[in-house]
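Exercise 7. Predict the joint structure of the components listed below.
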Amino acid sequence: MAEGWERIEPLLLGVERPARYIDREWNAAHRDVVDVRVALAYPDTYEIGQANQAIAILYERFGGLEGVAAERVFVPWKDMAAALRHDGIALPTLESGTAVRECDVVGITLPYELTYTNVLELLDLAGIPLRASDRGEGDPLVIAGGPCAFNPEPVAAFFDAVFLGEAEYAAREIVELVRSVRADGLTRREALVALAGVPGVYVPSLYVAGEDGKLTAIEGAPKIVLKRIVGDLDSAPGIACPVVPYMDVVHDRATVEVLRGCTRGCRFCHAGMVYRPVRERSADTVVAAAVEALRCTGHDEVSLTSLSTTDHSRIAEIVRRLVRRFEGTGVSVSLPSLRADAFGVEMASLVSRGKKSGLTFAPEAGTQRLRDVINKNVTEEALIETVTSAFQAGWRRVKLYFMVGLPTETDEDVVAIGALVGRVLDTARAVVPAKERGGVKVAVSVSTFVPKAHTPFQWEAQLTRAEISRRQGLLRAAMPKKGVDLSWHDPETSFLEGVLARGGRQLADVIETAWREGAVLDAWSEEFSPAPWQRAFTAESLDAESVATAGFDVDAPLPWDHISAGLDAGFLREERAKALAGEVSEDCSVGACSACGVCDGLSVEVRTAGERRGG
Amino acid sequence: MPYAVSHGFSPRMRIAFGPALPVGTAGEREQFDLWLTKYVPAKDAVTMLAAATPEGLGPREAGFVGGKEPSLTAGTSLAEYDLVCEEVGPEPLGEALGTLVRAGGLVVEHKGKKKVFDLTRCLPKEPRVSVAEDGATHVALTIRIGPEGSLRPEMLVTEALAAAGFPGAPKTVTRTDIVQED
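Solution:
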């Protein structure tokens, strides 16, 4: 075993949850003969990152290539980080204990803006220069990926490259590039220029900012970098044999990705916009993958994951086949999210097998007007009917997700959330036997709208913190006094998310200063503090409020104009105009094409396993 | 394996482990019970289970348990521990342990909570201190484990080490055997 493990082992008894650092889990892959070593990092702790499907996919894709070792890296908790620094130990990978800085490539996924300082923590613990411009010939290529890669500018200074989209087939290209760079003796700069030639790769150092802030490509880099996509998901391998953790992780079950993309067209939804078009796996593929994943891991639960699983054209068949197959085995099937209609309740009944914990729905807005603005196709009638069926079928708890701060929102819309929740509660109580009424619970979770890049709302402003608090106060007052558990997102966290999601290159200095001031593990509510960020904004003379709460002019350049998810700019403008007029758009996987541009731009098409249900 | 599944709302594999090992303690004779729906020869069960377990965690022996036997965690068990201490000789350590045991009660603070252990009840045998061939000092402890919680062996030895003038913790802690008390 490499030096890393020998130095880590003595530290284990002095840290919390040592299982985070020990490797050797079932299905962890160890390679003896290696000429390319890829460190795959999730910018948070083991228990968050080990459950991440992107890392699991890439672990198998890279690890399946001849001569390539794919090894995992997670952010150590504070106690281990302090111990590593104290003893001068460079952060090692899990599998071989190799120092991360000695790997050829370090891939870091960016799942959420509040993990940006964790990226710096990881680089620092690894002994890799934080800024790409400071890295030398011996340093690994540090490549970002994941959802936040679609506005990479706030963290562009820390990455040699950013990969946009789906990397299943790009893994091989990146490895081959590493080999050819080595064989041809290319300099680091030459390697980066070559990397920019790989479709889907954005190399920040090859884009120079002009006086107006607009970025111009140099040295043959593409003017606009288009995301990479897997056209035929059914043929693409899924996660065959994931690592089985020794400790509790956030999603402790086997997963099968049943489809990618969602074209319901909710206008606030970043994932729905950047992962288009819809591509389903066939029922046979899903069933076989579920059975194999369970056989390979021994999990007692398999989750059918996607952005909207119950929209899969064959989901009823898939669920029935799996439930039948697992009868009497103690294995259960779970669905991560449900449509708010009778079909959703039917699917939930099928998988619950008698144990009915709770159902979750996301109306998002309190009035039909505002739901039409955001294109969330849920009527109050459908929601009430769904709640009625659910409680008649034996459920006693329902969770509802809402947002405040949506474009065109008024106080009436906010208060209407309370009224809607009240009607849901009354409906639920009315259908259950009198003696069970006391057990009826409605949980309401209210987040704050953050305008995201590449959505029809990308030009909108976020609410100020003061206004968010005021509306949350209105909401609290409008809620039924009993039977409701209300939770809401901390305005400071949402504000910071807004700044980091909408900013440009000027944020790199702020992020670095915030990290130096102690901001780390910010996604953990008990660790998050706005103070280091406040100090960073002041030190770097950045008016953070203006970054988050100023809108963009519809014709002005955006910090992500050189990054493309395949969407036509005209489509986003048109959707915005429709939103402001309160008009809805159809789901193209069921209805007419909305000319979003993705299919033409990426030479792909909507692929469903059968005919989807409308509505 | 043709494992049995429990009945009721939430069917689960019927498998039950003995008393948990504390974090940082190795185990050499840990046990679990597995209910099956079909006969599998014990030797085959060991082979099949070991092949599906990470190295070092697979079962080494198996045997049939009659239907009326109490569960592994029912009642109390006696656990044997071997602790390795470096830089301290057997005499000072043995003397310190003896003094602690004679005192009768041990106050232990763990994660901010204080607990008092009655050593006469926890330790059915005297601690045995010896020197191995490599010169390391070994402490053998027999500790009673019960539903009300049990004394962690390294806490007793750490206390003794401090009293003997060698502040620090044992290098390794291994549970070498565990038997149910009649």
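Discussion. The longest helix of chain A spans residues 411-431.
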